[in-house]
Amino acid sequence: MMNWSFFFTLNQRRHTILQVAIGLLFCLTPIFINLPYKINLYLAWEGAYRMSIGQMPFRDFGMPLGYGFWIIPSIFFKIFGPWMSSLIKAQAFINALSLVSFHYILKALKVDNSLRTIGILIFCISYIFIHFWPWYNHTVFMYELIGMALLLNSVTQKGYKRYLLLVLSGVMIFLSFFTKQDIGGLAFLFGLIIATTSAIYERDVRVVVFFLGGFILAFALFVLPLLQYDFSYWFNFGQPPHSSRISLMDYLDDTFGVGSNLIRVYLLLIFVRIFMLLQSDLKAFINDKHQVLLVLVTLGFVVQALLAQVTSYIPANAHYYYHSFAVVFLLSSVKIEKYLYQPVSLLVICALIVFTWSNDFWKYGRRIVNRLNPTKEVLDYSRVSKKTWIIKNDTLKRDRSDWVNPPYKTFDNVTLPKSTVEGIGRLVGTYKGKKDLKVLNMTELPQLAHELGYEPLKGAEQPLWYHQSVAFFDREVSTICDNISKEHYDLVLFEIIPELNRFYPPDVLSCAKENYELEDRFLAPRSPENAFIEVYRKR
To answer: Does pTM top 0.85 for this prediction?
Structure first.
């Protein structure tokens, strides 16, 4: 007779299988669906494209950060081609690396495998699920996660393996810094605290020495060759009008404001748990290295998210990784693990977790419901309700329901406004294949370089993006306006975004209007649809 209990019991191995299944589901799903073109995607594409065709950062183009963000996407461009689908594949790989690192951090801290399943589910729902595309505020954290996983697992190794892991940890933490300075700097301080704590418990100062050695080695390999170029200027340091975007009042507002309510609740519960541990048996707590490291890691990631939301504020959910660390720590304190080996209990807990983070699911679920029941909602302002208590007078289109798939390879797996596709078509029809075409492309469509067949402009004044006072400064405005007045460019493409403050420099637009002739105008790939791309040619 068949033993049905075999199918209704969970063990360590089955939890591991479940973790892999959850990870694959969330990492691979975006590869098989079409997604709308999102703001700032042009930045990921252009940096990867320039590096994949051999252009060197800081020599051939500038950026106000390191190029760690574009390493993986450029490799995927080399393997699969400069397509949008390659970016999705690159992000799937980044998500997978993040999940594996998260798993090994919890394993090194001796978190039970059943609780690691819960942690991975929360990590996927609250963080992985919202990252379909590469973005530096996510990539910087991936490098940090890898570095922390290597650092925490080094203490379980002996001999050369231990010190190799420490060196590699330092290298990964440097890549975090070389992706974005603010979060990367916090990652370095965080890693140094963990390394110092481990050194104290192990009574081995070499833990810190080898960790710092890896960081310094990576610095020498990545930065020293760049110092002969304009590295310091583009790294937001040097000539005016560079200015700090860090404000004490911003930190106070974000720390004590509405946006940090949940972080403050987490910190309250974490400190209550720490207080209980200290009160119950102070000596036992201090002697338990893994418990102390678990506390430090949890606090580190939560506090990092609290600080990073000031300088890395786009998107607002970029730092939601802290949920998984906080919840795992709090659940471990109530000894929930025994229930997680019971299938029914695990299913109920997982369902509650999915319900808790249902806001992102509902964005897509609502579309499905609307398709199944395609009734157009009519607002009746004669009655006051949640949707009618404010009279809206907004004629701008804010949804992407009628966006279409462009017939161009670089835009595979994405949809664009029909007007944008038609505008690209006119450019391709007029300029594709023209020899030595020089294009100043100040738009969110860098893919035109591949579609029209021109090489992106090289030079110190060519940044990856043209946000004035962030990545584009007075010197660059002067140089490009001088080039326009001399008709150095065959085409000038300029994007106008009324609601953003100098996202593209208005002085350059004035120069183009004075010296070139307006040839075309079409929608930019943005929502709401109030941004336009203008095409200027020589008179």
So the answer is: yes
